Amino acid sequence: MRTNRRNLLYASTALSPTICMFHILIKLFPYTGLGRIVALPLVFTLNAALINSAIHLIRKLSPLCCALILVPTILLSIWNTILFYPQEFSPSIPKQIKYSISALQHYDDLTLADWEGYTYSPSRSGASERYVVALYKYKHRVPLDGTSYFYNDTDYHKDHPIRSLNGIPSELEPHHQFIWWLLQSYEK
């Protein structure tokens, strides 16, 4: 009986990063279409099976061996959550993260053309991430008279022209808001 409670505690603790990753991904990447309805339960089931298998293996091992098995298992469950999280039009989450990191790393190389020349489309090349970083870099050149639109898109964003620098982050897509926050935090 005591072993079952301990195993349940281990499983609950080991599954908590999966739940946290679901929350983070839903906040940062909300555009999943109907895929989220199917994917989240499947990912949770996959991670639960993975963690239960690991707990079954470590029952009779020393605490050090338990940690050496359980930590990589939890990291693998986090990776599964990220990898299998669906996106409706955008590239996969790992690609979007890669594009975001690349745009941040090339902050100094971005030009005014990365901001002004961007055309809104579901980007599969990282252009939208470069646009956001370039917008941040050149934010003091943005005309605040209502002639400039978010993502240079006069169709979807026609009712939301850029009128103040403080209002920019709230109009960006959620993971672009996170990029903006990183840039502000590190005072680029």
3D architecture notes:
With about 190 residues, the chain is an all-alpha fold. The protein contains 8 helices and no strands. Helix 1 packs antiparallel against helix 2 and helix 2 packs antiparallel against helix 3. It is elongated. It starts with a helix and ends with a helix. The model has no long low-confidence stretch (mean pLDDT about 85). Keywords: Membrane, Transmembrane, Transmembrane helix.
What Rg do the Cα atoms give?
Answer: 21 Å
Unreliable spans:
none
Average pLDDT score: 86
The description of the largest β-sheet is:
none
Question: How much of the sequence is in beta strands?
Answer: under 5%
Distance separating the two termini: 56 Å
Q: Which structural category do the helix and sheet elements fall into?
A: mainly alpha
Strand tally is 0
Question: How are helices and strands ordered from N to C?
Answer: HHHHHHHH
Keywords: Membrane, Transmembrane, Transmembrane helix
Transmembrane segments: 7-26, 38-58, 65-85
Question: SSE layout and pairings?
Answer:
Layout lengths: L1 H27 L6 H24 L4 H21 L9 H13 L6 H5 L10 H11 L30 H4 L2 H12 L3
Helix pairs in contact: 1-2, 1-3, 2-3, 4-6, 6-8
Keywords: Membrane, Transmembrane, Transmembrane helix
Give keywords.
mainly alpha, membrane, 188 residues, transmembrane helix, 62% helix, transmembrane
